[in-house]
Design goal:
Elements (H helix, E strand, L loop, with lengths): L7 H4 L1 H7 L11 H11 L4 H14 L3 H5 L3 H4 L9 H15 L9 H4 L7 H11 L10 H10 L7 H11 L7 H11 L24
Helix pairs in contact: 2-12, 3-4, 3-9, 10-12
Length: about 210
C-alpha cells in the first residue's frame, strides 16, 4: 500500500509531549558527570555505566581532579566498559584540555573537537545542559524506530540526523531522545505496536513500507 503524505511536524507532537521531561537513562548529577558518562557509554549499556559511575566519581569528583589523573589511574574504575583503555585516554585527554567544570563547552562544534565525542554524544550533552539544540540525537534505538515510522531511512546516523533536521523545525529536534525512549520501551526489536501512540502514522504497523 502506498504511504499517505504525513505532516511529521504535526504527527510527532504526541511523542514529543509524552517524553518531553524524561531524562536520559544515564544517571548523571552534573555536566561533568554527563560528559564522562556519555564518553564511557559508547558500545556499552547505560545500566553498566550507571553501575560503575559512583566509584569513578568518588575518585575523580570533577574535571580538575580528573585532569591530574593518569590513564592507568582511571582504568581500574572502568574495566567493565568496552574499549576501556581508549576511553581512559579520552577522559584524561578531555580533562587536561578543559581543566575545570566551568570550562565545559556548551556548543556542538567545540564538543565534537574533544576526544571520544561525536555528534550523538554532543547532542546528548547539550540536551542535559539545557542548551539550545544544534542537532538531533540518533542512537541505536532511533536508527531502528525512525525507519519503522517512515520519518527517515537508512542506517547511517549522520544521514538520518540530517533527514530529521530537514523534516522538523528546530523546536522539535528533541525528537531523537523521544524516539530513543520509545525504542527502549515499546518499539523494541520485537515491537509492541498495539500499545504504541504512534501506530496511526507508522509505516511498519500500517504496512506502508
Amino acid at each position: 500500500m502506498k504511504p499517505p503524505k504525513i505532516n511529521w511536524s504535526e504527527a510527532i507532537k504526541p511523542l514529543l509531549k509524552k517524553y518531553k521531561n524524561t531524562p536520559h537513562p544515564l544517571q548523571s548529577k552534573n555536566l561533568y558527570q554527563q560528559v564522562a558518562m556519555v564518553v564511557l557509554s559508547a558500545q556499552t549499556t547505560d545500566s553498566i555505566i550507571n553501575q560503575i559511575a559512583p566509584e569513578l566519581f568518588k575518585a575523580f569528583p570533577n574535571m580538575q581532579a580528573l585532569s591530574k589523573a593518569t590513564e592507568d589511574a582511571v582504568i581500574p574504575y572502568i574495566t567493565k566498559v568496552r574499549n576501556f583503555r581508549n576511553k581512559a585516554k579520552w577522559l584524561t585527554g578531555i580533562a587536561k584540555q578543559i581543566k575545570k567544570d566551568s570550562n565545559i563547552p556548551q556548543n556542538l562544534d567545540q564538543l565534537v573537537e574533544l576526544p571520544g565525542i561525536g555528534r550523538k554524544s554532543a547532542n546528548v550533552i547539550l540536551r542535559f545542559a539545557g542548551a539550545p539544540p544544534e542537532g538531533v540525537i540518533v542512537d541505536l534505538h532511533v536508527l531502528r524506530v525512525a525507519p519503522r515510522l517512515g520519518i527517515a531511512s537508512g542506517d547511517d546516523a549522520t544521514k538520518m540526523e540530517k533527514q530529521l533536521m530537514e523534516k522538523l523545525p528546530k523546536e522539535q529536534w528533541d525528537v531523537g531522545m523521544a524516539m530513543s525512549h520509545l525504542g527502549r520501551e515499546i518499539c523494541r526489536p520485537k515491537p509492541e505496536c498495539e500499545r504504541c501512540l504512534m501506530n496511526k502514522v507508522c509505516a511498519f504497523y500500517n504496512k506502508w513500507n
